[in-house]
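Q: What does the predicted 3D structure of Glycosyltransferase look like?
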Amino acid sequence: MSAPRVAVVTVAHGRHAHLTEQQRSLSTVAGPAGTPAHDRVVVAMGDPRIPAVVGRDDVVDLPLPADGRLPLAAARNLGAAEALRRGAEVLVFLDVDCLAGPGTVAAYAAAVADEPDVVWCGPVTYLSPDDRPYPLERLAELDDPHPARPAPAPGARERGGDWALFWSLSFALSADAWRRTGGFDEAYTGYGAEDTDLGQRARAAGLGLGWLGDAPAYHQHHPTSDPPVQHAADIVRNGRLFAARWGWWPMGGWLEQLAARGLVVREDDGWRLVP
C-alpha cells in the first residue's frame, strides 16, 4: 500500500522569520520509502513578501478585506482547496509560528491512514526566547507541552475528550473528513473562535477527536499580551457569532480578563465591547 499524499498548509501575514524557521523544520522531514514527505501550501494574506520565503510555486495569494481583519478562516479554506486540487489525501495544518518535529508530518500521515474519521492534534510546546536559536535537530529536548490540552507520550495515541480544546496550531485530518466538516466558517474574521467552531463542526459531522504523541509542534516565541487586548473587538464579535451557532461563548478566560480591565462587560446574552 502506497503512502498517502500529504500537504502541509500554513497561512501567513508577516512573521517572515518564523516562517523561514518553519520551512527549515519541515525540510528535516524524511519521506516514506524515499518519496517526498509532503506537498506545501502557504496562503499569503495580503503579503507579497511571502514568496521570497517559501517559493512562488508553494504560495497562494489572498487579498486582505477592506476592513483589514485577517481572513484566517478563508485563508485556511483556500489552502485546503489548493492542497486537494493537487491531490492531497491528508491535510496537515500548521500555524506559522510553529516548528514541526522531525517525525511530525509522518506521524500525522500514519494516524490519519489508520483512522481517517479522526481529527488528530499533536502536543504544542511554547518555546522560550532564551532557547534561541532553536536547535531543530534537538527540539525534543525542549518538550514542555501546553498543560491545558492532552499530551500523550511519544508513541501513544489518545482518542476522545472535549472538542472545546481543539485548536488550529497543529492538526491533521483526511481529505474526506475535511469535506465532512465543511471547512472553516468564513463568517469569522480577525482573531479568535474560528478554530473552536471547526471543532464543533467536526463533532457535529460525527468525526472523532484524537491526540497524537508522535506529532509535536514547537511554538516560536513572539511578543504578545495576555489577555490579547488588541483583539478585544474581534473576540467579542466572533464570540457572539459562535454563541449564536452553538449556544455558548468560547474564549471565556480571555473575556473575564478583558472585563477585569474594563474593556468588555457581561450582558444577559453574553458580552459586549465597552465603547
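A (community wiki): The C-alpha cells above were generated from the sequence. The longest helix spans residues 232-246. The chain has a mean pLDDT of 92.
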